[in-house]
């Protein structure tokens, strides 16, 4: 299937929007990390309550999985997404291998934030506001990219499969909402369990 500029403009615009939002969240987390490094006892602007905060996440080993703060990954990674979005809107065509590498990067980001969600909800028992902003844009970006790689011929050579994948893009928002609902349900159930454990410790 030959890529057409008008056909993929919507996807490119989404990449630009997602990258700006994601980069801003990563920037805010980086600032908070610097504040925390200068003063471990500082009250961070994102610390709303014991369960809605980013301080605990940033100060945990999960917050620096690769030996440096996770937000640095966002600062660099989202810039790549921004450049890709601008290129798609501009109608620049990329070879199949390039799209494959981009897809691997997006898939890696999705797997990473899924792991971070699990760690945050079930091990740290917190919800980091800026982390949730990142989650909220990574999920639809992954879904949209998966569909795009199907429709532009990166993942399949079948013209029929590409055509059917093209019709799936309109369902990405609904799939995203379902994913959000699953995360919210997980957080609520985990929150109830955590509150129950705390009550048992305090009053048991």
UniProtKB/TrEMBL annotation:
The family assignment reads: Belongs to the VKOR family.
Principal place where this protein is found?
Answer: membrane
**Entry's transmembrane regions:** 12-31, 72-90, 97-118, 124-147, 168-190
Query: What CDD domains does this protein's entry cite?
Result: VKOR_5
Which keywords does the record carry?
Disulfide bond, Membrane, Oxidoreductase, Quinone, Redox-active center, Transmembrane, Transmembrane helix
Q: Which GO terms describe its molecular function?
A: oxidoreductase activity; quinone binding
Signal peptide region: none
Q: Report the protein name in the record.
A: Vitamin K epoxide reductase domain-containing protein
A GO cellular component annotation here is: membrane
Give the bilayer topology: Multi-pass membrane protein
* SMART domains, per the entry: VKc
Q: Which residues form the Vitamin K epoxide reductase domain?
A: 8-149
- Location of the protein in the cell: Membrane
Q: Which domain of life is it from?
A: Bacteria
Which InterPro entries is this protein grouped with? VKOR, VKOR_Actinobacteria, VKOR_sf
